[in-house]
Amino acid sequence: MSTPNVSSVATADEATAPRSNPFRSLNFSARFWVALGFVVLVLLLGVAGYFYPTSSSEKVGSLYDPPGNGLLFGTDNFGHDVLAVLMAGTRTSLVIGLVAGIIATTIGVAIGLLAGYVGGWLEELLMGITNVVLAIPSIIVLILISISLPKSTMWSLAVVIGITSWPWTARAVRAQASSVATREHIDVARLSGARLGGILVRDVLPYILSYAVMAFVLQVSGAILAEAALSMLGLGPAGADSLGTQLHWALAFQAVASGAWWAFLPPTIVLTLVSFGFLLLQASLDEVFNPRLRRGKRKQMKQTQARRLAEAQAAAATRPVGGERAGVGAGRARTAHEGGRS
Amino acid sequence: MKLGQYIARKTVWYVVALVAAVSLNFLLPRLVPGNPVDVIVSNLARGGAVNGEQQKQIYEGFVQQFGLNAPLWQQFLTYLGKVFSGDLGTSFASYPTSVNSLLGQALPWSIAVQLPAIVIGWVLGNVVGAVAAFRGGNWDRSVFTSSLFLSAMPYYCLSILLLYGLAVVAGIFPVGGAYSLGNSPAFSLDFVTDALQYYWLPFLSLVIVFIGGQAVGMRSMAIYELGGDYVNYGRAMGIGDNRITRYIFRNAMLPQITGLALSIGTLVSGALITELVFNYPGVGTLLFNAISQNDYPVIQAITLIITLAVLAANFLVEIVYGIVDPRIRAAASGER
């Protein structure tokens, strides 16, 4: 996130909020640092694999050797070092998440921008397609495509996950883009003869960027989880370790029932860290980009007793705007709200 | 926008979605280079599960069933005809069992574990979320953080942790399966009490995640409503807290009810991997086995049923919403 962009978001808020110090919004909350800590931990784990002496496909023991003997997490069902497999798997999962996240966010932002800015029949068409894709459960499409592929690699999986998970980003971006499209500076750009592409990239995109960043964060974790689900169903990347395939083999070889906790707990914990860390990161970014949310939080913490009063005051000062909530919900709670307030 | 117009428009889009979904279901496997039957039959041969004669029978059966020699459009029509008459084909892995009967065995298990989990989780989650929003303070913060954590955790991770903690380490529940060895499904008291012991773990793992998700949603909706203009207005008018709470609750419930309906739509697909973890004989386990055996008719049937359920639930929700809330109709036509 570049600085001019953050301040532009803040200035946009200034118009509606009485508060007028744009740099206040750069105060990251404690929650942000915790979330960032989780994410960095997972990243480090993935990178550490490059420096770890044992290869993930090297046989160092027999079936489910318990931790010890220089092996921090013992061995898995193939006799591989669980820690080595975990690091390789984390890396694969992160790569899949990043690639899929980039693809999904790019498609989603492009379609959302175009639909929201241009409007008319193009918007109808693009949103129609988006809604159709949204209505078909993506896990089903993922399963069907994975079965149809002769052999799935981590790259093909990443692309497949990417091209099936853009719709909700497109919808959120469209809502933002159509509100930006009515602002004065767009008219100025249009009158000065800027082209459609130029206006979209230079005049509309900056206002969307904070949403795009948050959407990207969630897309990455969503893709990692989607890969894990597919792999556990037996559709994982061939010849590569991922967090999902690690769990797949652990389940297939009865690691849980036989009490070999070292074989299944590490990937389970890393997946949880990924999921929770990225969601928390998105939520705290939301607070950074949306100062109003944070102010509400702070009051909540400090004035427990006078909470209702504070809430009423805050509401009187800043009327909640519809768009404020568009970026917030994207976890499982999102589906619950979309029907209601989209 | 008039109600009729709104419904007509939604219907058109959902028909498009249905056609797209069914076509995907039909087309995707056929985009594979080579004949899918060859792959399946050669896989069967490699596994040694069937002899040459059976193999030939299966091959011919499949070619005939789906009319693979006919042009694609004709195949599609045949496929549609079969699907609409309720015939989902014949399984390969357990030839000649029909897919219908396989699904018939698996579906009740999935529904039995999901439906109570969704309904109970929904009720508890909404209560927890609403109380957290109204009470605020530390209570709210701890509930919110733990709910967020639970709802963010992949549901299969929680399943694995519960299975290990409660069944393997603590030994409270049996490890995996749906009933004791030697028992077989029947509507007897003996069987039901036996099955109930195996039921708790999958149920718990689903319900806990669901409570978390619902509580997060309800809390944020209630807080959002607390800041609404009508609340301030009501307070200024001196309306009692109880009545305001009732208004807030009613407005915050609307999206939650949508959530309930949509979750019921994912009844079949919501627990795919939970079933795998617990080795529960539902649709998830059926799908897993079908995938590992390249049992294409079964996979196709499961994906179709899940899609139909989700589409139907979405459609019903949108229609009901259009009737209940005129703002939605206005938004759909861009009048807002």
From TrEMBL, chain A:
InterPro entries cross-referenced by the UniProt entry: BP-dependent_transpt_permease (IPR050366), MetI-like (IPR000515), MetI-like_sf (IPR035906)
Recorded topology in the membrane: Multi-pass membrane protein
ABC transmembrane type-1 domain sequence ranges: 90-282
Residue ranges, compositional bias (Low complexity): 303-323
Keyword Transmembrane attached: yes
Record localization: Cell membrane
Stretches the record annotates as Disordered: 296-342
Gene3D superfamilies according to UniProt: MetI-like (1.10.3720.10)
UniProt record similarity statement: Belongs to the binding-protein-dependent transport system permease family.
Protein name as it appears in the record: ABC transporter permease
TrEMBL record, chain B:
Domain ABC transmembrane type-1: 107-317
Keyword Signal set for record: no
InterPro entries linked to this entry: MetI-like (IPR000515), MetI-like_sf (IPR035906)
Keyword Transmembrane in record: yes
Transmembrane segments: 12-32, 111-134, 155-179, 199-217, 257-278, 298-324
Membrane topology term: Multi-pass membrane protein
Compartment list: Cell membrane; Membrane
UniProt KW keywords: Membrane, Transmembrane, Transmembrane helix, Transport
Gene3D superfamilies: MetI-like (1.10.3720.10)
Family designation: Belongs to the binding-protein-dependent transport system permease family.
Protein name in the entry: ABC transporter permease
Lineage of the organism: Bacteria, Bacillati, Actinomycetota, Actinomycetes, Kineosporiales
